Amino acid sequence: MIKTENLVKSFGETTVLKNITTEFYPGKTNLIIGRSGAGKTVLLKLLVGLHKPTEGKVFYDKVDFFGLDSKAMRNVRMKVGMLFQASALFDSLSVEENVRFPLDMFTNMTPKEKAMRVGYCLERVSLEGVNTKFPSETSGGMQKRIGIARAIVLDPKYLFCDEPNSGLDPKTALVIDELIKSITEELNITTVINTHDMNSVMEIGDNIILLYQGEIAWRGSKDQVLTSDNDLLQDFIFASPFLQRLRDQALAKGA
């Protein structure tokens, strides 16, 4: 579990996040949603330690992350996997080398052990037989799956995903959503996803927080989205006429 307590982040005189207190649960897909400028990316960077909070704390399983020394903080980061918005693969490395990169950097595993681990992770994301290909030889959806394989190769306890469906068609995005959710449940990972994709919200939103002007404006699950009377959530979610119709249908059934 990851927990934030009265988290504040300011840049100069501008306060981007205000008193963020929330929890992200293991085995669940925890989503951060909100309009551009709401503070989603800043919160994600605070959680992974790329920013230091102005005030407040971040706890990893009851351990105060920013209270650790550099060695202890590195040990926590060893348990973190990251899926970047643009996959962030190395163009000059093969698929196998990309996935193996964290093992080369952070472990003393033998070449055989690394090969077995890479093979397992590629199989887990349904990419058997592409080891020798280069990123440029793969599709956008495949690159996302390669990114997921790399993110889980160190067997993380925590997984952070920054706009995982960015640039993907709806069908491929659904595959990525289902893959992230199944891996989260299978490995009991605490997964935190920064997204603006409403399909993701409605498909895999186990635990959702809505940020508005740097504060938590709503929290709940995908099952509570359609019937919520929170005005800020409605304005954000139901800008789409299609989703508005879904909401009206859900309210009609409950009437």
Please name the defining characteristics of this protein.
10 helices, alpha/beta, 6-stranded mixed sheet, 255 residues
Average predicted confidence as pLDDT? 91
**Helicity level:** 40-55%
Q: Order of strands across the widest beta sheet?
A: 6-7-8-3-9-10
What would the principal axes of the Cα set say about the shape? globular
Distinct helical segment count: 10
Query: Using DSSP, what is the number of strands?
Result: 10
Q: Approximately what portion of the residues adopt beta-strand conformation?
A: 15-25%
Order of helices and strands: EEEHEEHEHHHEHEHEEHHH
**N- to C-terminal distance:** 37 Å
The whole-angstrom Rg is 19 Å
Structural class call reads: alpha/beta
Tell me what the structure shows.
- It is built from 10 helices and 10 strands.
- By secondary structure, it is an alpha/beta fold.
- α3 (95-106) packs across α4 (111-124) and α3 runs parallel beside α5.
Please specify the SSE layout and strand pairing.
Blueprint: E1 2-11, E2 14-24, E3 29-33, H1 40-48, E4 55-60, E5 63-64, H2 70-77, E6 80-83, H3 95-106, H4 111-124, H5 140-152, E7 158-162, H6 170-187, E8 190-194, H7 198-204, E9 207-212, E10 215-220, H8 222-225, H9 231-237, H10 241-254
Parallel strand pairs: 3-8, 3-9, 6-7, 7-8
Antiparallel strand pairs: 1-2, 1-4, 4-5, 9-10
Helix pairs in contact: 3-4, 3-5, 4-5, 5-6, 6-7
